[in-house]
Description:
binds zinc ion, HIT family, subunit A, globular
Amino acid sequence: MSDCLFCNIIAGNIPADILYEDDKIMVFKDIYPKADVHLLMIPKVHIETLAHLEQSHHDLIAYMMLKLPQLALEQGLDNGFRTIINTGKGGGQEVFHLHIHLLGGKNLPGF
Length: 111
Ligand code: 5GP
Ligand code: ZN
């Protein structure tokens, strides 16, 4: 069993509140939400950080970016939303499987 938390969520070994899934990505609720809406979007392939992206991931990362506004609208965030990618320990990353935070709602904290 992989010791990557998010790979284990993808594999179904660890439960998560999954809102969207296809062959490339998964979207689930953050377990410790920092806003009314706080989702995590991850690629199904294990990529450690944004800094580990390779040219071969070009289409995948574009796919993720294009899906984000769609997901935000589905969550009722028609007035805007925030996306965050923490990269590496210096960037505050705690789970080393690339993920995009999607945050929004009335209680969005200041940046
Ligand atoms: P990072 O700091 O790496 O950018 O963010 C990791 C995020 O994963 C945090 O916001 C944290 O709350 C979330 N998280 C940590 N463990 C779990 C878990 O087991 N399940 C879910 N759904 N989210 C988690
Ligand atoms: Zn992983």
